[in-house]
Amino acid sequence: MDTYPSGRQIDIAYNDQRATIVEVGGGIRRYEVAGRSVLDPYPIDAMCDGAHGSPLIPWPNRLADGQYRFDGTEYQVALSEPEKHNAIHGLLRWRSWRVVRTSSAGVTMGVQLHPMQGYPFLLDVEVDYTLDGEGLTVTTTATNAGTRPCPYGTGQHPYLSPGVGLINQCTLQLGASTRILTDDQRQLPNGTEAVDRTIFDFREPRLLGTTKLDFAFTDLARSLGCGFARW
Predict the structure, then answer these.
(1) Whole-angstrom Cα distance, residue 6 to residue 24?
(2) Residues ≥6 apart with Cβ < 8 Å to 15
(3) Residue 127 CB: number of other CB atoms within 10 A?
(4) What is the Cα–Cα distance from 141 to 189, expressed in whole angstroms?
(5) Which CATH number fits domain 9-62+90-156: 2.40.37.10, 2.60.40.10, 1.20.1050.10, 2.70.98.10?
(6) What is the pTM of this model?
(7) Does residue 196 contact residue 178 with C-beta atoms inside 8 Å?
(8) CA dist list (Å): 133 to 34, 35, 39, 103
């Protein structure tokens, strides 16, 4: 059996949709429709880079200095972004996940996060990937398997594909009215700003151009969603 840096490759398909889910990190390595990449893939012979397609559990984004406070206790986790002195994107990106359920059009990946230094809690996690007539649906389920309250957060890290050409030639629509501000040095959240009358207002489709986006948005109009288009 072939061995890849991202472990076992689980392929699912529905009509002209194709996706590949990986063992290492339980993330999605590729998703395409009619041969066109909807999510930007990474090579099968390469390690996952930059949380590419990964679930971010038990916290997304960054913990400053790897520290957090929960239920009256201070905790310290390892600095997984040492150059900025942060702990980034949780603890499950490099764990081996198992296949819980699988079918031709879907797969559920699971992992148990055991107590460890800085996170002495027991958490069961499942992420289900399903293809159907509506596209790709990703559902995350987390269960506190321990005997005391457990801190938990989750996020996803898909890389949307611009298709052929440069991303600044794409038209972007993003149904969000607020952006989360971050500092320049460590990318830690430090406030919010309404996008109205700013260069970050993409509630109506417009050319992305040279606008740089490397922060989160909130106050979402979920019926609009987010997407690229090439005109």
Answers:
(1) 5
(2) 133
(3) 27
(4) 26
(5) 2.70.98.10
(6) 0.91
(7) no
(8) 13, 16, 17, 16
3-state SS class at 196: coil
Contact 153, 142 (CB under 8 A): no
- Domain ranges across the chain: 9-62+90-156, 167-229
Q: Residue written as tokens 């989750």? A: 154
88-123 pLDDT tens trace: 999 999 999 999 999 999 999 999 999 999 999 999
Are 41 and 102 in contact by the 8 Å Cβ rule? The answer is no
| SS3 label, residue 21 | strand
* 35 CB neighbour count, 10 Å cutoff: 7
Question: What is the token pair recorded at 179?
Answer: 């952006």
Query: pLDDT tens for residues 161-199?
Result: 887 778 888 899 999 999 999 998 999 999 999 999 999
Selection from 49, 52, 51, 50 nearest residue 40 by Cα? 52
